[in-house]
Specification:
Strand content: 5-15%
CATH topology of the largest domain: Rossmann fold
Largest sheet: 5 strands, parallel
Number of domains: 2
Low-confidence stretches: none
Radius of gyration: 18 Å
CATH superfamily of the largest domain: Response regulator
Mean pLDDT: 84
Distance between the termini: 23 Å
Order of helices and strands: EHEHEEEHEEHHHH
Length: about 180
């Protein structure tokens, strides 16, 4: 999981980053300003946002994450500042153990990537993009890898013989192992 960190307190940000890395996360940032964090959204798969950053808030960034359907949570000393539109987003106080934050993001990510038994290809694309980004580490390359996977899947006329999502992920991984560098810029 690639976690974007937005936290203006250096010591809190450093501690969060170290503990998240120990749990297996890759850190995007940490960022001290919302405007700087915007550039990190594309490479992140999840985010931890301090709601109040100096004289501003992180809500525009939260809106971007919501629009991109990326899991995030608020980690803040002022929970009452979070607007109602984020009522479904988990908000944690600064004393919350980092493991709890990490597991919350992992559950959100897993829930977002669940595939129903009767799923269509369009329902599986987020799962494919997530797996491709984990393999490639490059958003554009990952999207090209997903595209190549879907093209090959269409050419095989859907002969997957079972679970569509597992077949597509296996196909994606096979293409990556055979031609992964071809998709990088």
């Amino acid at each position: 999981m690639r976690v974007l960190l937005l936290e203006d307190d250096y010591f809190i940000a450093s501690g969060l980053a170290a503990e998240l890395e120990a749990l297996g996360a890759t850190i995007v940032g940490p960022f001290r300003k919302t405007e700087d964090a915007v550039d990190g959204i594309e490479s992140a798969t999840a985010a931890i946002l301090d709601a109040k950053i100096a004289d501003e808030t992180s809500f525009l960034l939260a809106d971007c994450l919501t629009n991109q359907q990326k899991p995030f949570l608020f980690y803040t000393g002022v929970p009452n500042v979070v607007p109602q539109r984020f009522g479904a987003v988990k908000t944690f106080g600064k004393t919350t153990p980092v493991r709890v934050l990490f597991e919350t993001l992992r559950r959100q990510e897993n829930h977002r990537l669940e595939v129903q038994p009767d799923a269509q290809v369009v329902d599986i694309v987020p799962l494919l993009r997530h797996r491709a980004r984990a393999l490639m580490g490059d958003t554009l390359g990952a999207d090209r890898l997903v595209e190549a996977t879907l093209v090959l899947a269409l050419r095989s006329k859907g002969n997957h013989g079972g679970s569509l999502d597992k077949w597509l992920v296996k196909l994606l991984e096979s293409i990556y192992h055979n031609r992964g560098r071809d998709f990088m810029l």
